[in-house]
Amino acid sequence: MISKEKAPLTVYAPASMGNVGVGFDLLGAALAPIDGSLLGDKVTISQASNSTASPASLHASGEIHFSQTGIWSHKLPTVPEDNIVYQCAQFFLDKLGVKTGIALNLEKNLPVGSGLGSSASSVVAALYGLNEYFDTPFEPQVLLQLMGEFEGKISGSVHYDNVAPSYLGGMQLMLDSPSELCAAIPHFKHWYWLVAYPGISLSTAKMRALLPAQYDKAVTIDFGRHLSAFVHASHSQNPKLAIEVLKDVLAEPYRADAIPGYKQASGALNQLGMLTTGISGSGPTLFSITDDIGLAEKAKAWLTDNYVTQDGGFVHICHIDEQGARRV
C-alpha cells in the first residue's frame, strides 16, 4: 500500500534507433535532439481517487485509471485495456499485490510505426515510472527483461535494441547472456545524427516479413565482421573505421524499396557529403551521420523539403542521449 501523500511522478523515455544499421537486433542507441527538446514519450503516475473509478477501470488488484494525451494519442487504441501502458500497470498491481488505485497518463509524443522505438518508449516510460513510484521493487536487469517482454507483444518478438537504450541511455550492445542482457559501448560524441521521419507509418511486423528466411554464408560473415569491427572502432575511438564498416547487409537491401523516397534521399545525402546513411529500426525514419554541424543543417533542410511528405513528419539533429529514462 502506498500512502495518500505520495506525490505524482512523471518520467520520460527517449526515442531510439534499433539496429543502427550495422547491428541488426543487436545494437541500439538513444536519441537527444541538440536543441534540447525531448523526443520520446512521457508517463505520469499518481494515486487514483476511488470516487472517480469507473467499471472499465476496475482491476483485481485495485483500480487503474488510464488516459492518453500527446500529438500521436489519436493513433492509439481507445479502449484502455488495449493500451500497453495500461497492461504494464496491470502487471505491476498483480505482481506486487497492491490494492490501492493508480492513475496513469501517457503523453504520446512519438509516431507509431516510425522506426524510432515508439512502443518501446511507452513501455520503458511506464515500467520505469511504475518501478520508481513503488520504490524500485525490481532491479535493473529484471526490469529490462520485463520491458523486452512487453515490447515484444507489439513487435511480435522479444528483442532489446530499442528498450535497452531507451531505458539505460547511450549505445547498447545486446548480449542476452544469463548474467547480462546488454552492455554500453562508447559512442562518438562529435557525431551529429540526423533522424528524418517522413510522416508515414510502416508496420514492424510487415517490414520484418520482407527479410529472407535464410541468408548466404558470405552475408552472415560480412555481418559479423562489420559489427565486430564497429564495436572495436567504438572502443578504440576510431571514427574512420567505424564509418567504413557501418553497413547494413541484412535488412536494408530488402527494406529500402519499401520506404518511399529512401534511396533517393540516401543518394542525395551522400552527394552532400554526409558520412553514411541508414534505416532507423525498420523505417521509415532514416538516420544520417556527420561531424560537421554546418553540413548537418544543410542536410536537415534538404530532408525537410524532400523527404518529409506528410503532416507530422520531422527532422532532428541529435546526439546520443546518455541519460535514458528519467524523471522530469
TrEMBL record:
Output the PROSITE patterns linked to this UniProt entry.
GHMP_KINASES_ATP
Pathway listed: Amino-acid biosynthesis; L-threonine biosynthesis; L-threonine from L-aspartate: step 4/5
Cited function = Catalyzes the ATP-dependent phosphorylation of L-homoserine to L-homoserine phosphate.
One Pfam family hit: GHMP_kinases_C
Domain of life of the organism encoding this protein: Bacteria
**One of the GO biological process terms:** threonine biosynthetic process
Q: What is this protein called?
A: Homoserine kinase
Q: Which family does it belong to?
A: Belongs to the GHMP kinase family. Homoserine kinase subfamily.
- UniProt keyword list: Amino-acid biosynthesis, ATP-binding, Cytoplasm, Kinase, Nucleotide-binding, Threonine biosynthesis, Transferase
Primary site of residence:
cytoplasm
> Would I find Transferase among this entry's keywords?
yes
Is Magnesium tagged as a keyword? no
EC number(s) of the enzyme? 2.7.1.39
**A GO molecular function for this record?**
ATP binding
